[in-house]
Amino acid sequence: MNKREFLKALSSMTAVAALGACSSSVSIAEQGKVSALKKRRLYIDGLSFIPKEHLDVKASELNAYIADISDIEAITMADSSTNYKRTYKACMASIKRHLKSMQENPDVYFLASKGSDIALANELDKCAVFLQIQGADCVEEDLNQLDEFYDLGLRALQLTHHYNNVYAGGALSKGNIGLSSRGQALIERLEQKRMLIDLSHSSVASAEQTLALAKGPVVQTHGAARAIVNNARCTPDHVIKAIADSGGVFGVFMMSWWLTDSNVPRAEDYIKHLAHIKNIAGAQAVAIANDYPLRGHEKALASGNNNDLAIEGYKSWWQSNGDKGILGFDKDVNHIVIPELNHIKRMRSIEHLLERAKFTSDEIDLVMGENWQRVLVDILG
């Protein structure tokens, strides 16, 4: 039995135990709130945000999701380009602001600290939300700052966002830099605290070294397959397989310019990535992500999902990466969303697309939410 098989068997037992434990802790009155959520598939999104309109959470039909609660400061890089750094100050203010917002809407949100909270939130007809920050720049001084974020509810941390930092190499920086000694210490602390290690936006070398160092599951909350779109932000097959072998999952996001080289993005392009990951790494490795607000890319929605209008403002950033020789940015792009999936009911649409693509019922269960639930229970408890 290899590591992936062992973790799969162990997580099945853990999930069953968690379900039993939460049921016994919920009152008869609360158990009476069990809704249609129990009668349909589990829906879990690997990355979105806390919305301004909190009813969006109910409308999305999500049982749980990982929410990026970070905030940014504009930082001028050595080459005069602009990076948006998630500083300690900005992210500390942001996590407190989002916690206040969630606390003011207790009928909507369940602040999740463990994977088993998904089942408990489901019993209460709430959405379990796991807090995440896209980039370890927020840990500026020492790892005690990570402890501060953890104590406030943070449960997932990306190593970097696009570009190199003091911990790891970014996917859009040249040189394929790996983990630094500080990055290795960060990986160890994240595992000690039972937090999700998120490889999204990491360089290939950083991903490889993290997977070699980590003792438990490692995830990529949002990304796409480089075998389909040859771009630095997309992930090579060997890294996807290693994530699966660790017991982790790979979430496929909604950013269409990394899903297809076609000028006309279609829902089938999204399914191709899910199918590819299933084929190379197994159905237990595939998951859904978003990387846009719950209701979808707002500028695209405002334009009636007109990609020509939605992409305005992004092309200069894309071109700047092309000018630096970053893989895949030499091609012009004219879209950023798949119109058929840029709406708040996308999970239901994806479920139907998977059925049409001949995924089995059990495979669809895994992809729509059970894989995320398994890994969150494995890592967080």
UniProtKB/TrEMBL annotation:
Q: Domain of life of the organism in this record?
A: Bacteria
Q: Which GO terms describe its biological process?
A: proteolysis
The cross-references to PROSITE patterns, in alphabetical order and at most eight, read:
PROKAR_LIPOPROTEIN, RENAL_DIPEPTIDASE_2
Q: Which InterPro entries match?
A: Metal_Hydrolase, Pept_M19
Which Pfam families does the record cross-reference, listed alphabetically? Peptidase_M19
Q: Which GO terms describe its molecular function?
A: metallodipeptidase activity
- Name-wise, this protein is Peptidase M19
- Species source reads Litorilituus sediminis
